[in-house]
Amino acid sequence: MPKVTINGLEFEAEKGSTLLEVADFLGIEIPTLCYHEGLSPYGACRLCVVEIGVGENTRLVTSCTYPVQEGLNIRTHSERVVRTRKMLIELLLATCPSSKVIQDLASKFGVTQVRFKQEHNDCILCGLCVRMCAEQMDGKAIGLVGRGDDLKITTPFDIKSEQCRLCGGCMYICPACQLRCQGPDVEEAVCNACLNLEPPCLESWDDAMCYMDPCVACEVEYSRKPKVKKEKTSKEQS
Amino acid sequence: METEKIEKILEENGYDRAGLIPILQDVQTEFNYLPQEALSYVAEKLEIPLIDVYCVASFFKSFSLKPRGEHLVTVCLGTACHVKRASSVLDEIEKRLGIRPGENTEDMQFTLETVNCLGACALAPIVVVDGDYYGQTTTKKIDSILKTYKRGDKKE
Fold it and tell me: Which residues does chain A have within 8 Å of residue B36's beta carbon, measured at their own beta carbons?
């Protein structure tokens, strides 16, 4: 049983557990975004950073992936950690300003301004949907395709995947794209539409799949509707 | 799609899941690119999800999911080459072939690609055609380089 010091508190942690699990057990709150109890840790969002080490020799690590070690000195809320977290939230907010999850994080941690160019993406590449699909739904229909700047989450060849059962798990767990699929009738969409386990467009299009880029159902519907309507909806959203 | 060819490649590699990259390399050598049917077939035979094969195929720059021309022309745009005016060499090749990087010529003879560094900076600016390195290229040399490949066409 490795002994660790967390925020000055000595604790005998279970071997093999992660720093996040130790903090969670002790009731120390560490914000997370790409972490989910039922899925394997991924360390993509970096929000769960903690500072380890002593003296001048400290460094930041993601607590969701870092296993406990004998004699580890952990600080979960040092000045450096808090500053880093705020910066990360600011960057996430610039990537995906319409995400409620990220907006909530920003308000909780006092991020009141975004100094970066807003990109209005609908994906922060946290990989939650990919892990949800593979680990919980046994689907393996979507994955991280490409690399670097071109990295995106999609199906093989951007076409409907045979592995996809349209369970909607990917959309359910997504922290960024609740607005991604509201079906063809955007104007009639009610609040909490994001909590639909089934994409609403399925009623009209049995071949729809949100992760196709762009979604076939939405594209077909949009091209049919007069352009005025589309502009109106985009204004409403912004 | 000629499944026998892929089957042979898989056999040579011993149906090894860990050997996905060498398998894809062999498939690419066979077809000059990675056809969609080939990837599906490889995924099915190795019993791995298609998305995993697709992720690997899309990750590496040396794999192409689009058909490629007979000869692959690669221009290095790394720092050293950039300083030695690789961009004007690229412009010249673009003009000669009439294509942009990532495109094929209409007769499918050439494919133009750029690369960030080939590690042969002493030879900057460097152009590679089908694995043959042409160091210290200038816009004037482009014509003769391309000519050798045009003539060495399969018309013989």
Answer: 157
B53 touching chain A per CB within 8 A: yes
Three-state SS string across chain A, please? CCEEEECCEEEECCCCCEHHHHHHHCCCCCCCCCCCCCCCCCCCCCCCEEEECCCCCCEEEECCCCECCCCEEEECCCHHHHHHHHHHHHHHHHHCCCCHHHHHHHHHCCCCCCCCCCCCCCCCCCCHHHHHHHHHCCCCCCEEECCHHHCEEECHHHCCCCCCCCCCHHHHHCCCCCCCCCCCCHHHCCCCHHHCCCCHHHHCCCCCCCCCCCCHHHHHHHHHCCHHHHHHHHHHHC
pLDDT tens by residue, A197-229: 455 555 555 555 555 555 555 555 555 554 444
Domain count along chain B? 2
Instruction: From chain B, pick out residues whose CB is under 8 angstroms from the CB of A147.
Output: 58-59
Give, for B29, the enclosing helix (H) or strand (E): helix B20-31
Are B58 and A140 a contacting pair at CB < 8 A?
no
In a domain, B118, yes or no: yes
Mutate to test the interface with B, among A138, A140, A160 (most CBs of B within 10 A): A140
Domain that holds residue B115: 71-151
CATH of A3-108, one of 3.40.630.40, 1.20.120.80, 3.30.465.60, 3.10.20.740: 3.10.20.740
Cis, peptide link before residue B125, omega less than 30° from 0: yes
Same domain, yes or no, for B8 and B52?
yes
* Binary contact (A144, B53; C-beta < 8 A): no
What residue type is assigned to position B66 of the chain? K
Substitution target from B53, B58, B62 for chain A, most A beta carbons within 10 A: B58
Inspect the interface and report whether the beta carbons of A156 and B59 lie closer than 8 Å.
no
pLDDT digits (tens, 9 = 90+) for A31-63: 999 999 999 999 999 999 999 998 888 999 999
Structure tokens at A80: 């450096």
Mean pLDDT for chain A overall:
79
Over residues B126-134, the mean pLDDT reads: 90
Question: How far apart are the CA of A162 and the nearest CA of chain B, in angstroms?
Answer: 9
> Does B55 touch chain A if contact means CB atoms closer than 8 Å?
yes
